[in-house]
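Section 3.1: Structural characterization of target chains.
Under the original work plan, the team committed to producing a structural model for every single-chain target entering the pipeline before any wet-lab resources were allocated. The record below documents one such target. The sequence was received from the expression subgroup and is listed exactly as submitted; it comprises 306 residues.
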Amino acid sequence: MDENRIQLQAEESGERIDALLARTFPALSRSLIQKCIEAGAVTLDGRPVKKSARSEVGALIELVLPETEELPLLPQELPLDIVYEDADLLVVNKARGMVVHPAPGHPDGTLVNALLFHCGESLSGIGGCRRPGIVHRIDKDTSGLLAAAKTDLAHRGLSAQLGDHSLFREYAAVCCGSFRDDEGTVDRPVGRCPSDRKRMAVNEKNGRPAVTHWRVLARYRGYCLVACRLETGRTHQIRVHMASIGHPLLGDGLYGAKCPDRGLEGQCLHARRLTLTHPRSGERLQFEAPLPDYFQSVLSRLGPEI
């Protein structure tokens, strides 16, 4: 099969094809998929589709990705904490404060720049010229584990695992307030905030499905250390979900501005565990990253557990 060709058999009717592809392959941006549709590179049972086209049960959807663009980014020798690496993928423990890929206000000094230096020409181009190798992201002020693809095979495999929720991601978070229960689930759609496009919000009308499972690891006076496992991976999902149930993350000025920040610049959130299936060997792999110094310092300032 052509390495740039992605196939998917629709299980339901009525969902927009661009939305279905974006949901199934999270590494592909909605805008990239729509550009492919405009170019006639997305077909339904062999027929080119329009942007508004919807799925049909049993129909074969094919997307042919454009050839990888020449990267305009400069490789930069930046510190990388590499937890695992082979010919197909690597797992890094991202430092707090590092942006994952270039964006307005952050043209360089990103994880992508560091990966380009470390991997050279061996880095998947499916993510596009601004996000080579990037399969999933974590916020600038979130630390912890992130997988990157060095080959297109790995990129497609990891993206498929994100789509079927077999790639597990668990975070440690310090949340404000005392939880009544020891564990629970937030199942609320997340989308752009209608009144502020810079924020995400629980959006019942236009949001995408989002599920976060949480459990309390330790209780302090006025705060809790919580483990959050993502079933989906929406932008700011944990921050939005925890705030929506009255427990914003400590230090989160965007979704919990009234909370004292205890000297933090940004939310106290760490991607501590990552479990995935190796896209080539099929081996199930699990990685863990201990709580970094800034996180441990916050916990020590919260006082004794109760």
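The chain is about 20% helix and 30% strand.
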